[in-house]
Amino acid sequence: MSAYHFKTKSAEETMSFAEKLGSILQSGDVLTLAGDLGAGKTTFTKGLAKGLGITRTVNSPTFTIIKEYKGRLPLYHMDVYRLEDSDEDLGFEEYFSGDGVCVVEWAVFIEEHLPEERLELVISHKGDDEREIQITPIGKRYEERVKEIM
Ligand code: ADP
Ligand code: MG
């Protein structure tokens, strides 16, 4: 399970890379997004949503924790930052085993609820508008997704 790397020089580039990934995702796919505040996790999800055919504006779900969007497949966009010191379970298992696509920002805070197989993304700052996106597929289905876009 090797990691792949992709560099972007603007928010737009991150979004178009994410859009490409979004266009090939399938029912039941789970993605985790790690990276500091302002790294681009939500920006990435905006692009992903476009690739899923979602036309509504995607905003950070920090306060609601989970937001749902309708597209080619439903998108469940989660930001579980606020669960850092809590073991609250908002029904995660059902989302992860459902028919939609799940994207989880700060997934480390709900580690115990995550499915074993998932696509792990880490976004790091590399300068003003430069970012590196590290992609680690865990499981065969995710290796296939990565092969398709890289
Ligand atoms: P996070 O969800 O990780 O806290 P956001 O996506 O909300 O981060 O914010 C990222 C900010 O960085 C946005 O204002 C975005 O426009 C900006 N940005 C600049 N360059 C990039 C890039 N290459 N990729 C993603 N975002 C970028
Ligand atoms: Mg965010």
From TrEMBL:
Compartment(s) where it occurs, according to its Swiss-Prot or TrEMBL record:
Cytoplasm
> Does the keyword Phosphoprotein belong to this entry?
no
Q: Which UniProt keywords apply?
A: ATP-binding, Cytoplasm, Magnesium, Metal-binding, Nucleotide-binding, tRNA processing
Q: Which InterPro entries would you find in this protein's record? A: P-loop_NTPase, T6A_TsaE
Principal subcellular localization: cytoplasm
Taxonomic superkingdom: Bacteria
Indicate the secretion signal residues.
none
Query: Pfam families this protein is in?
Result: TsaE
**Matching NCBIfam families, A to Z?**
T6A_YjeE
* Family the UniProt entry places it in: Belongs to the TsaE family.
Q: What is this protein called?
A: tRNA threonylcarbamoyladenosine biosynthesis protein TsaE
Question: What gene, per UniProt, encodes this protein?
Answer: tsaE
